[in-house]
Automatic annotation (TrEMBL):
Annotated InterPro entries: Lysozyme-like_dom_sf, Lytic_transglycosylase_MltB, MltB-like, SLT_2
PANTHER family in the cross-refs: MEMBRANE-BOUND LYTIC MUREIN TRANSGLYCOSYLASE B
The keyword Signal is annotated on this UniProt entry: yes
Listed name of the protein: Lytic murein transglycosylase B
Species: Rhodanobacter ginsenosidimutans
Signal peptide limits: 1-29
Keywords for this protein: Signal
Domain Transglycosylase SLT: 37-323
Database matches in Pfam families: SLT_2
Length: 336
């Protein structure tokens, strides 16, 4: 007997498969690699709207000039070439004038946070020439470029990008997609990264927002709070010259954290050129100076400056600029 099977309607398979397809999550289109996952994390952590976040990221551009800039940082230079970039007569004189113009505010904030005001001034001097050059890159472009297209430091910069996207609007100087800063995504006169804004920025003028671009109280207090939060010790030294003798023991260090009492380094052949407590904790920096190696004892406050920028060249520039500004202010005051 021949069995005749009924033929199925042409749309049968389509009707069967369609409900199954509805159960599969759609794949989000993304402008940048890793964008979909990043947006998903921000939505999960903050409840922000995914469409708005995607629109912001879609508008950001990968900038080759940013990738080029991060591959040739100034900190790769020797000290003899690095110092003249930041410790110049103009920057010192501008710093003296800036300190004197804002003396009352600087001294009030310095006292509040236990930080020498000359170092607050030196930070904004080294970072942005006292607010004159805060950077022309779009912050969003910078962090998208480095967080999603720069594998050597993608972890760090992706964290900064995520923090920027999560940041409350009143913690920023303006709408997120209009912010400008350095090629690394740092903002304002003190060049704060997003996690530093989150952890240390201060609404010192009590207007309900943090403005590191336009509010001097917020700018100064945020820098001071950053130093205080990383362990600045009021009245303690930052750095002092050392003189090695002929038998001085070579010293290798991993970072600028103080490791030994000063008397230990003296026993190893390094003499301080000024009076310092023998028990003062220190380490030794060797810098490639114009006239050969320079040896410096550096202390806790020097290490704190390296939390702003880990390069000892940067920290030494801030220190020497601060010292020159303080000396210049003192000379002007004594001459009046």
């Amino acid at each position: 007997m021949t069995v005749i099977r009924a033929s199925r309607p042409a749309g049968f398979l389509a009707a069967l498969i369609a409900p199954l397809l509805l159960c599969v999550a759609p794949v989000s289109a993304q402008t940048h690699p890793g964008q979909a996952a990043l947006v998903q994390e921000v939505v999960r952590d903050t409840g922000k709207d995914a469409a708005t976040l995607n629109a912001l990221l879609d508008g950001a551009k990968r900038q080759q000039s940013i990738l080029d800039a991060i591959s040739r940082p100034a900190e790769a230079k020797p000290w003899r070439d690095y110092r003249p970039i930041f410790v110049t007569d103009k920057r010192i004189n501008d710093g003296i004038a800036f300190y004197r113009e804002h003396r009352d505010l600087l001294q009030r904030i310095g006292t509040q946070y236990g930080v020498d005001p000359s170092y607050i001034v030196a930070i904004v001097g080294v970072e942005t020439s006292y607010g004159r050059n805060t950077g022309s890159y779009k912050v969003l472009d910078a962090l998208v470029t480095l967080g999603l297209y720069y594998p050597p430091r993608a972890k760090f910069f992706r964290e900064q990008l995520k923090e920027l996207l999560e940041m409350p609007a009143n913690h920023l100087a303006g709408p997120l997609d209009t912010l400008t800063g350095s090629y690394a995504g740092a903002q304002g006169w003190g060049q704060f990264m997003p996690t530093s804004i989150r952890d240390f920025a201060v609404d010192a003028d009590h207007d309900g927002r943090i403005d590191l671009q336009g509010s001097l109280p917020d700018i100064f207090a945020s820098v001071a709070n950053y130093f205080a939060g990383h362990g600045w010790v009021s009245g303690e030294p930052v750095a002092a010259r050392a003189q090695p003798d002929a038998s001085a023991r070579p010293i290798t260090i991993k970072d600028s954290r103080p490791q030994w009492p000063l008397e230990q380094l003296e026993a190893w052949g390094y003499a301080p050129l000024q009076s310092l407590p023998p028990a003062q904790m220190t380490t030794l920096q060797t810098l490639d100076g114009v006239n050969g190696p320079e040896y410096w004892f550096t202390f806790q406050n020097f290490y704190v400056i390296t939390r702003y920028n880990r390069s000892p060249l940067y920290a030494m520039s801030v220190h020497q600029l601060a010292q020159a500004i303080a000396a210049g202010v003192g000379q002007v005051d004594s001459a009046r």
